[in-house]
């Protein structure tokens, strides 16, 4: 009874999101859908900073679903001018902005129960989870993959060359010869991450059969 009482307080869009996780994900790798995302934020503090924009696209069977992308700009009251040179989003810009409480339901409707992919995913997921917390909601339920971690799986292990602890998105773009034309926009960075993810999958496929378990 207690569980049902707790779930009853949540809005309908959250209940619909949670219901998507009742069936199991497809067992065939080619049938899995990945949502590659990036967030632009006012800073790096998951508690006090806020999301300025979310960019996301879907990837299935080694193909980017170019007709199904998400780009959301979020109205900000807390604004840091020092972050503008990084993402170029101004408080009074011409972008159509929506409130955080509108943005999160739109994001959940888009991401569904799909597997989330991001570069340094802990930060982006942490920022979204903080937004969920402000709305009185639990954390995201999706499986999440980090291209920074996955990239290290592609490296040849050697006593002579030790892998770095962290690889930036710029480093992955250079490694895989990916254009950085739209770098530091949420959707642009999501697109770069998606291309890097496909390159990583191709390299991992050379070593063993691709399965979700091997990527986690």
TrEMBL record:
Q: Which GO terms describe its cellular component?
A: cytosol
Q: Which Gene3D superfamilies match?
A: Ribonuclease H-like superfamily/Ribonuclease H (3.30.420.10)
Example of a GO MF term: DNA binding
Tell me a GO biological process for this protein: DNA replication
Against InterPro entries, the record matches this protein to: DnaQ (IPR006054), Ribonucl_H (IPR013520), RNaseH-like_sf (IPR012337), RNaseH_sf (IPR036397)
Q: Keyword set for this entry?
A: Exonuclease, Hydrolase, Nuclease
Superkingdom to which the source organism belongs: Bacteria
Give the SMART domains listed for this entry.
EXOIII
Exonuclease domain residues: 33-206
Described function: DNA polymerase III is a complex, multichain enzyme responsible for most of the replicative synthesis in bacteria. The epsilon subunit contain the editing function and is a proofreading 3'-5' exonuclease.
Note the subunit structure: DNA polymerase III contains a core (composed of alpha, epsilon and theta chains) that associates with a tau subunit. This core dimerizes to form the POLIII' complex. PolIII' associates with the gamma complex (composed of gamma, delta, delta', psi and chi chains) and with the beta chain to form the complete DNA polymerase III complex.
> Would you tell me the protein name for this molecule?
3'-5' exonuclease
């Amino acid at each position: 009874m207690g569980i049902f009482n707790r779930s009853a307080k949540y809005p309908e869009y959250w209940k619909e999101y949670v219901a998507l996780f009742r069936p199991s994900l497809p067992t065939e790798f080619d049938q899995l859908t990945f949502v590659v995302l990036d967030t632009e934020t006012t800073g790096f503090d998951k508690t006090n900073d806020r999301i300025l924009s979310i960019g996301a696209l879907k990837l299935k069977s080694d193909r980017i679903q170019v007709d199904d992308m998400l780009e959301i700009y979020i109205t900000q009251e807390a604004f840091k001018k020092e972050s503008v040179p990084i993402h170029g989003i101004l408080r009074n810009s011409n972008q159509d902005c929506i409130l955080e409480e509108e943005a999160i339901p739109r994001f959940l409707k888009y991401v569904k129960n799909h597997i989330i992919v991001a570069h340094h995913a802990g930060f982006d997921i942490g920022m979204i989870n903080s937004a969920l917390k402000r709305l009185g909601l639990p954390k995201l339920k999706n499986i999440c993959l980090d291209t920074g971690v996955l990239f290290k799986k592609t490296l040849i292990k050697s006593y002579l060359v030790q892998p770095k602890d962290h690889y930036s998105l710029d480093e992955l773009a250079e490694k895989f010869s990916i254009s950085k034309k739209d770098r530091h926009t949420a959707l642009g960075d999501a697109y770069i991450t998606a291309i890097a993810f496909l390159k990583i999958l191709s390299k991992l496929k050379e070593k063993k059969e691709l399965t979700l378990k091997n990527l986690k």
